[in-house]
Amino acid sequence: MDHPQWLTWARELQAIAQTGLTYAKDSYDVERYQSVRRIAAEMMAAGGGLSESSMVLDLFSRDTGYATPKVDVRAAAFRENRVLLVKEREDGGWTLPGGWADIGDAPSEAAVREVKEESGYDVVITKLAAVYDRDRRGHPPILWRAYKLFFLCDIVGGEPISGSETEAVDFFAENQLPPLSLTRVTAAEIAHLFDHRRHPDLPTSFD
User: Fold this and answer.
1) Same domain? 32 vs 76
2) CB-based contacts of 201: which residues, under 8 Å, 6+ apart?
3) β-strand pairing of 82-88 with 94-95
4) Does 186 lie in the same domain as 137?
5) Are 37 and 17 found together in one domain?
6) What number of CA atoms fall less than 13 Å from residue 186's CA on the CB side?
7) Whether residue 76 is found in the same domain as residue 57
8) Closest CA relative to residue 127, chosen from 150, 106, 101, 97
9) Which residue from 21, 17, 111 is spatially nearest to 72, judged by alpha carbons?
10) DSSP state of 139
11) In terms of domains, do 52 and 77 share one?
12) Which of 62, 92, 110 lies at the terminal end of a domain, its last residue?
């Protein structure tokens, strides 16, 4: 899925502003970087069809420090050649358990925690299957640039329960996937994880 040029420009301006505000000492420079951030927020709001840019500006302002991509972790657990998926309350689509990595978690720890919170199952990580640039994998555009880490895991306990962000838990065959939450995962990504499941010696894929 191609991303609109305005989104690329707005992200780049936001990154320049965020990094500049991190290191700027002169009040004049701070003011200029704040203006760049405001322009980026207005571009995002206009491109996204929002009437106000204040919400976008508030989201931008919460990010501090040197601007880097966000990290999304996803875990693929299998049972009888079917993959574990959870149904998102937000959009009604199904996805691999996962989400943004939290500060203080190692990537694999974040994946284990997300599986437990969203599905009720206890898992152990067995392999890092893929590291992808989200923008290159057919997802709908979002505000942030993000990297996606896909792990294979084994279920070692627990039982299916829905979480605060999910409303159903189930296992699906590769050729019988439900409607997916494409913001979070694509059919091609799930197919690639099935390939890793069938061929354990496959190396980690990356962009």
Assistant:
1) no
2) none
3) antiparallel
4) yes
5) yes
6) 13
7) no
8) 150
9) 111
10) P
11) no
12) 62
Q: Which residue has the tokens 């923008």?
A: 135
Are 12 and 93 members of one domain?
A: no
Please state, as a whole number, how many other Cβ atoms lie within 10 Å of the Cβ of residue 95: 24
Q: Is the domain of 80 the same as that of 41?
A: no
Residues 42 and 96 reside in one and the same domain: no
For the chain, the C-alpha Rg in angstroms (whole number) is 19
- The SS3 call for residue 153 is strand
Query: In the numeric block, which tokens belong to residue 43?
Result: 């571009």
Structure tokens at 24: 């700027």
Classify residue 175 as left (phi > 0), alpha (psi -120 to 50) or beta: alpha
Q: Tally the domains of the chain.
A: 2
| pLDDT tens over the chain, length 207 residues | 567 888 888 888 888 888 888 888 889 898 998 988 888 888 888 888 887 788 888 888 888 888 889 999 999 999 999 999 999 999 999 999 999 998 889 999 999 999 999 999 999 999 999 999 999 999 998 888 899 999 999 999 999 998 889 999 999 999 999 999 999 999 999 999 999 999 999 999 999
Domain that holds residue 193: 70-206
